[in-house]
């Protein structure tokens, strides 16, 4: 039997989301500070820059986790590579190369507690049952998922969607019934979820962080002609067409890039030395 003190009863840790056996905790303040870093830590917490962690209560089930994301585990929990033979290893190697994801994502199974490394990013839990049991993720967002979900490399339908869309040729796709954890630059409160029913959404920039696997993704001109695109001030837009959902991060790092601050030498105004 494992008993964890100062975990669930920790006043500095607040559970901000939960889906089944997956819980997301947020450290309200960074208490491990010194006099030199205390002010920065205080204002960081005030601006919602906080560390967040995923805690998974395993009860005979299995979870797939991004390589290096595990912090600690307790109980009868074992880890495997998730490789089920030479063919599976070759398939995962190819998928990892084309999507930029880890080739080997360890799987944790058993009865106990699994805690992932803290991150300052926002952790979003998505239930694939609410996404038509198929979802495609933007590059580098995957953190963990139930191992019942099948992972695959989803190829863009056209070369234009890869080159002009600012993305690679492949994205990580998940299919099945279960929950996936992703890391987002935007909190859930700022994400916009668009539901399409045989319709279309056009987006200027790489703002979509996840979309239904049933949607067709292409890159098209913003206007019907080159002149119309030039007049609108928008060149090419990412187009998602069909029936499904798109999750947008309209104020994320890709949407709003901070201006660079150029430091200059101080100018001293005064009498010249005689």
3D structure, described in words:
The protein is mostly beta strands. Helices cover 13% and strands 43% of the residues.
Give the arrangement of secondary structure elements.
Elements: E1 13-19, E2 22-27, H1 38-46, E3 52-65, E4 70-80, H2 86-99, E5 107-116, E6 122-127, E7 134-137, E8 142-146, E9 150-155, H3 159-163, E10 170-175, E11 179-184, E12 192-203, E13 208-212, E14 216-221, H4 226-232, E15 236-248
Antiparallel strand pairs: 1-2, 2-3, 3-5, 3-8, 4-5, 6-11, 7-10, 7-13, 8-11, 9-10, 12-15, 13-15, 14-15
Mean pLDDT: 83
CATH superfamily: Mitochondrial biogenesis AIM24
Give the DSSP E fraction (strand runs of 2 or more residues). 35-45%
Q: Indicate the low-confidence ranges by residue numbers.
A: 226-233, 255-270
Count of helical regions: 4
Shape: globular
Which structural class best describes the helix and strand composition? Answer: mainly beta
Oligomeric category: single chain
SSE pattern, N- to C-terminal: EEHEEHEEEEEHEEEEEHE
Number of domains: 1
CATH topology annotation: Double-stranded beta-helix
CATH class: Alpha Beta
Distance N to C terminus: 82 Å
The Rg value, from CA coordinates, equals 23 Å
Main sheet summary: 8 strands, antiparallel
Give a count of the beta strands, DSSP E runs of length 2 or more: 15
CATH architecture: 4-Layer Sandwich
Helix content: 10-25%
